[in-house]
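Trying the structure run again after the queue cleared.
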Amino acid sequence: VQLQASGGGLVQAGGSLRLSCAASRRTFNNYFMGWFRQAPGKEREFVAAIRWSGGSTSYADSVKGRFTISRDNAKNTVYLQMDSLKPEDTAVYYCAAKSGGITSTMRDIKTYNYWGQGTQVTVSS
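Done. Tokens:
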């Protein structure tokens, strides 16, 4: 599975961005798709995830109510809509995928085995 992330950029606090993650695989039944981020000097952390079949979602507490993860079956693409951005959201954002597993592990970075390149998101104050 190859993942291509895009959509990052520079935005003022309070603004919005939409990240996209295009996947090469045609079908994603039993896959989980996730977004993670890594700020300078910090470990990579979970942001949001979605179960391709059924659409169950999970969010980090820090982004809940501001970010929305979704998928487009026809385009094999996962999106991360980011609203009300804050300077602390500044990071490199990565999309990831994993095959199988259970919903309770969709936040666990160690269980993801396919990664896209990162896209930089910078939020100015």
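The longest strand covers residues 91-99. Worth checking whether this holds up in the mutant runs.
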